[in-house]
Amino acid sequence: MASAQQAEAVPWQAEAQVVAAQKRTVRLLAAAQIVGGVGVGVASSLGSLLAESVGQSETYAGLARTAMAAGAAAVGVPLAFIAQRRGRRSSLSAGWLAAALGGFILVAAAVLESIPLLVVGMLLFGIGSATNQQSRYAAADLAMPDRRARALSIVVWSTTIGSVIGPNLADPGAAVASALHLPPLTGAFLLASVCMTLASVLLWAWLRPDPLVLSRRRPEGEAEPPKTGASAAVPSDSMGDTLRMVREHLRRAPRAAFAFLAIVVAHTIMVAVMTMTPVSMARHGETLTVVGITISGHLLGMYAFSPVVGWLADRFGHLPVALAGQAIFVVSALLSGLSHGSVAMVMAGLLLLGLGWSFSLVAGSALLSEATPARLRPGVQGTADTVMNVVAAVGASLSGPLMSSVGFGGLNAIAGILVLPVVVCSFRLARIRTRYGQWPRRGLDSKP
User: Fold this and answer.
1) What is the CATH number of the domain that holds 81?
2) Which residues, in sequence order, are CB contacts of 155 under 8 Å at separation 6+?
3) Does any domain span residue 42?
4) Of 186, 207, 228, which closes a domain?
5) Do residues 43 and 68 make contact, with C-beta atoms less than 8 angstroms apart?
6) 201 and 350 co-located in one domain
7) What pLDDT, on a 0 to 100 scale, did the predictor assign at position 167?
8) Residues spanned by the domain of 363
9) What pLDDT is attached to residue 447?
10) Are residues 140 and 53 in the same domain?
C-alpha cells in the first residue's frame, strides 16, 4: 500500500519517455529560437531603414514598425488556435514559415519599390515576433511542476543569441545582395528568411512527439477529468469558442488571471519606457554610442539572466518572483525618473527595467501554464501574448505625448504606478491562501 501511494505521488512528467521528450523539446526550441531569432533581430534593427529606403520618406520608417507590431498582435490568437487544434509543432512551424515568406516579400518590395508589398511583408514578418514569444510556452508543457520556469527560461535566454546576431547582418547581407544584384538592405532580409525557414523545418521535422499533444494524454489533477481521444486534440470547434473558454477560465481562475495581468503590465511598462529612453538621452546630448550601450544593457537585463530567474521562480514560487519583478520596476522608475541626465542612473534604470520584465515574464508565463489545464493552455497563452502586444503598442504610442507633457521623470512615475493593479491582484490570492491554508491549486481556482 505504501509503495502504491508513493508511486501515485510521482508526477507523470517523471516518466522516462516524458523526460526524454522534454529534453528533446527544449533543445529543439532553443535551436529554433537561436536560428529564427536572427530574423527578429533583423526586423528590429533594419526594418525601419528598409521601409525608409523603399518609401523615400521617414514616415514609412514608422509605418514599418507599426505594421510589424500589428502583425505580431494579430496572429497571437490564431497561432494559439492552431496549437489548440493541431499541437505546438504545427503552430510554431507555420509561424516561422509565414515570417520567412514575409521576408521574401520585403525583398520583392525593395526591388519593385512597392509600398503595398512593403506593408504586407512587414505584417507577415511581424509574425516572427509572435512565434518567438509563444515558443517559450511549449517548453513548459512536459516540464516537471518544480522546473517549469527553468525550462521556459532556457527558451527565453536563447533569444539573446539571435537578437545579437541579427542586427549585425547588415554587412554580410550587403555582400549577398551585391552578388545577387539586389538593393543593399535586402541581403539581410534574405538571410533572415532563410534562418526562419530553417527554424520552421527544424520544428516540423523533429518536434515529435508534440509536447502539447503528449501532455493532454496525462492526468493533471484538474477539477474535471482530462479529455482523451478526439476531444483532447480538438477542444473547441471555432476560434470564438476558444476565446469564450479563455474568458471563462480567467474569470474563474485567480492565479491564471494574476499571471495574465502581470505579463501584460510588464510588457507595457518595458516598451513604453524603452521607446522614449533614447529620445531622452539624445535631448541631453548623449552620443549614439552611449545610447547603443544603454540599450544593450537593457537587452542584457531582459534575456541574459532568465535562467537564473527561472531557477528563482521554481525555488521560491512563481507568484513571489513575479511580484519581485514589480518591485524591480519601481526601483527602475526611481533611478531613471530621478536621473536628470545622469548616464549611469539611466543605464542602471534601463538594466533593471529589462530585469523586471524578465522576472515578470518568466514567472508569469510559468504560473499561467501551471494554472491552466492543458486543453485550454494554448488559447490562454496566445490571448495573453496578443493582449500584451496590443496594450504595449498603445503604451508606446502614448509614451511620446506623455513625455512631452510630463517629462521623462513623469513617464517613469506613471510606469511605476502601473504595477499597482498587479499588486492589488496579489492581495486577492493572499486572501484565498488564507482561506485554504496554501496557494490554491487549479481545482480551487475554479471555485468562487
Assistant:
1) 1.20.1250.20
2) 26, 29, 30, 33, 135, 136, 138, 139
3) yes
4) 207
5) yes
6) no
7) 66
8) 243-437+440-444
9) 38
10) yes
**Mean per-residue pLDDT pooled into runs of 10, the chain (448 residues):** 51 89 95 87 72 73 74 88 91 96 93 91 90 91 92 89 73 88 89 93 95 80 39 53 85 92 95 83 77 80 92 94 96 92 89 95 94 88 90 82 88 94 90 60 40
**Closest by Cα among 389, 411, 265, 263 to 334:** 411
Which residues have CB under 8 Å from 7's CB, separation 6+? none
Q: Which long-range contacts (CB under 8 A, 24 or more apart) does 208-213 make?
A: 208/89, 209/21, 210/87, 210/88, 210/89, 211/21, 211/22, 211/25, 211/88, 211/138, 211/139, 211/141, 211/142, 212/83, 212/87, 212/88, 212/138, 212/141, 212/374, 212/377, 212/378, 213/87, 213/88
> What is the full DSSP assignment across 312-365?
HHHHH-HHHHHHHHHHHHHHHHHHHHT-TT-HHHHHHHHHHHHHHHHHHHHHHH
Cβ atoms within 10 Å, residue 5? 8
Shared domain check, 291 and 179? no
Let me know if residue 213 belongs to a domain. Answer: no
**The pLDDT value given to residue 174:** 85
- What totals of helices (H) and strands (E) does the chain contain, helices first? 19, 0
What's the structural domain count of the chain?
Answer: 2
> Is 194 found in the same domain as 297?
no
68 lies in some domain: yes
| pLDDT score, position 396 | 78
In Å, what is the CA distance from 225 to each residue of 91, 221, 252? 26, 8, 17
